[in-house]
Amino acid sequence: MPEFLLIVESAARRFFEEIATRDEQVRLSRIMQEILTDPQIDRRTKFPFPVTDGAMYADGEFWIVYSTIEPGTVSILNIGFEEEPPSVGDA
Fold first, then answer.
1. Which residues contact 89 (CB under 8 A, 6 or more apart)?
2. Distance in angstroms (rounded) separating the CA atoms of residues 10 and 64
3. What is residue 91's predicted lDDT score, i.e. its pLDDT?
C-alpha cells in the first residue's frame, strides 16, 4: 500500500482550527484525504492554480489551494469559504 503525507501549512491550519465548525472540519478532513489520494486536476472540483505544481479544489462551499510536492505528498496551502478570493495565504 502506498504511503501518503499531507502537510497542512499555517494559513490552512488556522482556518481549519479557528474558523471552521466541527461539522466543517469533518467535511474538510474528508476533502483533504480525497485530494491526498487523488490530487490530479479534473476540472470538476480540482482546477489549476498559479503556484508551482498548484491546484485548487472548489465545491461551491469551500476552496482549498494545494500543491503536490512529490508523488504521495501534498501540501495544503490555504482553505477558505467560496465567497472569499482564493490565495496561498502566508505559506
1. 9, 10, 11, 12, 65, 77, 78
2. 13
3. 46
